[in-house]
Design goal:
The chain is of the alpha/beta class. It has helices spanning 9-13, 33-42, 88-95, 106-114, 127-130, 141-149, 169-190, and strands at 23-27, 46-52, 64-70, 74-79, 101-103, 124-126. It is 35% helix and 16% strand.
């Protein structure tokens, strides 16, 4: 099935907002990493995204500090800044080609992750390439999601301080929604006859 190839910002503005419907779990202790990954592995494929504190000047250089991995039921927010980087089990999960992970603009995420630790992610599907055979010419998550579901993803929390001691509810919702939206897009397109 082919979809509309593109959509305008004005068309998106009139759409109802989307909300992640599942549970959001913040992982900021090493002791919780393995259990979260076991849950995700059992429900693969999973959506993937990362967040980095925004740079407001050319002098600013921040490292990726949050990684989101989402099933339809739960999104885990891995606070990489509080976990002191990418823990071994999380690195193994990201490098496991048997676990399908869906994201968007993955080279940027991988570049940021490699600044934390040497890593060779595998088993990933980049939606920017994946949507093209379906006639979708858009490359941004917000527009692809709006084309498929007629709902908008708010970007209000995008410029938040992701290194803050506590992630607010709106920050958690934003982060979870981005990862889950990647999964939902993939599931929608692969469910077509």
């Amino acid at each position: 099935m082919n979809y509309f190839p593109s959509i305008t910002h004005e068309e998106i503005a009139d759409m109802p907002g989307e909300v992640f419907p599942g549970q959001i779990v913040v992982i900021d202790r090493l002791a919780d990493v393995k259990k979260a990954l076991a849950t995700l592995e059992a429900s693969a494929p999973v959506g993937f995204d990362t967040e980095t504190r925004p740079n407001f000047s050319k002098k600013d250089h921040h490292k990726v500090c949050l990684m989101q991995l989402s099933s339809n039921e739960v999104c885990y927010l891995f606070r990489l800044n509080q976990l002191r980087g990418i823990p071994g089990p999380l690195k193994a999960f990201l490098e496991n080609r048997e676990i399908t992970k869906i994201g968007l603009s993955l080279p940027d995420d991988f570049h940021a992750l490699r600044k934390l630790t040497p890593i060779e992610p595998d088993g990933f599907i980049d939606l920017q390439k994946f949507v093209q055979p379906f006639g979708i010419q858009e490359a941004g998550l917000r527009k692809i999601y709006a084309i498929l579901f007629g709902r908008k993803i708010s970007k209000r929390a995008q410029l938040s301080n992701w290194e803050a001691n506590t992630l607010t509810g709106s920050m958690q919702q934003y982060a979870a929604l981005d990862a889950w939206a990647c999964l939902r897009i993939y599931q929608q397109l692969t469910a077509q006859p």
